[in-house]
Amino acid sequence: MSGRIEAAFAAAKAEDRAAFVPYLTAGYPDRAGFLEAVRTLTPYADLIEVGLPYSDPLGDGPTIQRSSEAALAGGVRTADVLDMIRDLRAETDVPLLVMTYYNPIFCYAGGGEAGFVRDVAAAGADGLILPDLPPEEAGSLIEAARAADLATTFLLAPTSTDARIAAVTDACRGFVYAVSVTGVTGAREALPADVPALVRRIQAASDLPVAVGFGVSGAATARPVAAAADGVVVGSALVRTLGEGGDLAALAAEIAGACRRTPVAG
Amino acid sequence: MTHAPTFDFPYPDARGRFGAYGGRYVPETLIPALDELAAAHDDAIRDPAFAAHLAEVLRDAVGRPSLLSEATRTSERLGLRVWLKREDLNHTGAHKINNTVGQVLLARRMGKTRIIAETGAGQHGVATATAAAMFGLPCVVYMGEEDVRRQALNVVRMRLLGAEVVPVTSGTRTLKDATNEAIRDWVTNVRDTFYVIGSVVGPHPYPRIVRDFQAVVGEETMAQLTERTGRDVPDAVVACVGGGSNAIGIFAPFAYLPAERRPRLIGVEAAGHGVGTGAHAASITAGKRGVLHGAMMYLMSDDDGQISPAHSVSAGLDYPGVGPEHSYYADAGLAEYVGVDDGAALAAFQRFAREEGILPALETSHALAYLDELATQLPAGADVVVNLSGRGDKDVNEAMRVLNLGADVQPGGEAPS
Ligand SMILES: Cc1ncc(COP(=O)(O)O)c(C=O)c1O
Q1: Which residues, at least 6 apart from A105, have a Cβ–Cβ distance to it below 8 Å?
Q2: pLDDT tens digits for B32-42?
Q3: Percentage, residues of chain B above pLDDT 90
Q4: Contact indicator for B66, B391 with CB cutoff of 8 Å
Q5: pTM here?
């Protein structure tokens, strides 16, 4: 692998921080606006999740649904998303993770699964995050990703059994994604109290970094997650702020600050 | 005659696959719930007490067995013997209730306390609301805003039955998006909620569960045909295909017969404005392989794998995918799939009402419309069974609008005080 993912988590750990992993939907609000937003986030981000917009995002709440619909309505195609990744890779060394549902991979016009993996890696992405693909269905994708040096991140959930945790972490490369709630993406006021317990169960089964996502909306929700996990993923709150023309840098700074376990003085 | 279900089919395999189709493409949160559901279903269908209870509910509450009646004037016109499997006579007016009572019984067995469902035409929503009411469970039904408009009567029926109807405003505002929203609810409330899927779609074990509960249609048909014709197998079986539950129900008991005994099985998809126009719902006829709502199947999507909007005059067929078992039948040559467009379906809807005195659902009208073509392919006197999947009362408003039949009888005037 490129090593960027490992290096990013290691660097955060060395500074006693959880890595901050912002998510944005590629092409939202439009191509230029998305690239600008990523540039705004990059100084605060340890890794960046680029969402490939999909027509039927059944793991997403209203904010990311709407951003995906808007991006697609604006004409964003898979090839455009690859272009955007190429543009970003030319500017930054931050690890880029492509979050995508499975059908756009399976149906990819440039050669299905194998072609998608090849082209995403060539564009400069470091990994895939696969919210609707359990490892049991991912045999050939995993094989292609290993060959292309692309990390694979599958998700674990509060409902996951120990046997699932073992199987899913086994299929992950780069890092493991723990979903904080039983539910879909969306900013929440508070997260369940059992998030740290889920993270510990995963850490007991795997040496990979564990990032927690779904529901983190600001410092208050980020802080307890950062205390327990190796990374904090934030999507809907950022996408909503972007859509409303709010202060993206301020929100990113707030969350990045909350990712520090030992508060810096001053 | 009360039919004892056999639940005995060679597919899916242990991974939930019908050949290349099916499987589980869902968020991790649901995997343990799907495992639990598969185990509960396996356990239930091996329990004679469950089968007996289901058979009793199907008899006493649904009204099974449904009749197999001959469409005499249609038979005469086409030179065939056209048999109608009268699922329209079931309680609530369609085949959907065979599945919902089965799944709600499963929900009770699993100790789930809340029922959710998606619906297109509203028939599955009504059937789920009915089963939930029968067993005293709260019920939430997701329905696309466009379908709420097209099927207003069924929205009111669901509300009268005590269900909450949630209009879905995302995406195309039809069945596809209602299904997304139901899955999102299930992901959120998975610990106490049972999701009653309305067709042979969704992640494993749903396509199997719905097939198992609908197969009573085909099994009864075999027994009734034997009584009426002395043969348990007809020359052809015809059914409309949306997600494919009524079709699987009547096909499955025939599909796995040895080739020399197997009748022609013909699934009729909605060709909408025509498969050439892109505005249709003919997933097998004009689609390609992909993943929708948790399963590998034939579906309609663009070059980027974005799901295409479907179109059909009938809300129940307005779905851009088709169940994995049908996808398998199509590849394996066990069944044939054809398209009938909106116009032909509407014409059959009107003709059948006048010719047989039965108002069929617009979905079912697609199957009826194909009989004319089929008659040119079969020898005179051939036995053809049509799954009359539902009655057309729910479609009267749409017929009024599309066929301009009610301009002089618009309801109006003062409400009684
Ligand atoms: C009467 C009737 N027939 C057919 C269908 C299509 O569903 P399926 O293909 O699952 O039978 C519906 C769906 O609402 C329906 O109401």
Answers
A1: A112, A113, A116, A117, A141, B305
A2: 999 999 999 99
A3: 90
A4: no
A5: 0.96
pLDDT band at residue A266 under the 50/70/90 scheme: very low
Residue from A58, A106, A137, A168 whose CB has the most chain B CBs within 10 Å, to mutate: A58
Strands (E), B176-218: 193-195
What is the number of other CB atoms lying within 10 angstroms of the CB of residue A176?
27
**Which residues in chain A touch residue B288, judged by CB atoms under 8 angstroms apart?**
107
> CA distances (Å), A94 to each of A52, A145, B27, in order?
18, 20, 27
User: What would the pLDDT profile of A171-230 be if each residue is shown by its tens digit?
Assistant: 999 999 999 999 999 999 999 999 999 999 999 999 999 999 999 999 999 999 999 999
Q: How far apart are the first and last CA of chain B?
A: 48
In this prediction, residue A265 carries a pLDDT of 54
| Domains of chain A in sequence order | 2-258 (3.20.20.70)
User: Can B394 be counted among the known catalytic residues?
Assistant: no
- Interface mutation vs chain A, best among B26, B28, B307, B308, most A CBs within 10 Å: B28
For A77-110, b/e burial (b = at least 16 CB within 10 A) is bbebbbebbeebbeebebbbbbbbbbbbbbbbee
Q: How many residues would you count in chain B?
A: 417
Mean pLDDT of B216-238: 98
Tell me how far apart the alpha carbons of residues B22 and B10 are, in angstroms, rounded to a whole number: 14
Q: End-to-end CA distance of chain A, in Å? A: 38
For residue A45, pLDDT beyond 90: yes
Alpha helices in B88-142, H assignment, sequence order:
96-109, 123-134
- For chain A, the residue count is 266
Per-position DSSP letters for B293-359, written without gaps between them: TTEEEEE-B-TT-PBPPP--SSGGG--SB--HHHHHHHHHTSSEEEEEEHHHHHHHHHHHHHHHS--
Q: How do residues A132-166 score in pLDDT, each as one tens digit?
A: 999 999 999 999 999 999 999 999 999 999 999 99
Amino acid at A198: L
Cα A4 to the center of its chain, rounded Å: 14
Residue predicted with more confidence, A227 or B415? A227
CB A232 within 8 A of CB A195: no
> Residue B300, class by beta-carbon neighbours within 10 Å (0-12 exposed, 13-18 middle, 19+ buried)?
buried
How many whole angstroms separate alpha carbon A128 and alpha carbon A106?
14
Residue B287 to chain A, least CA–CA distance (Å): 12
Residue whose CA is at the smallest distance from ligand 1 atom 1: B390
Phi, psi of A206 (to 5 degrees): -150, 150
B291 closest CB neighbour out of A69, A103, A183 = A103
d(CA B362, CA A181): 42
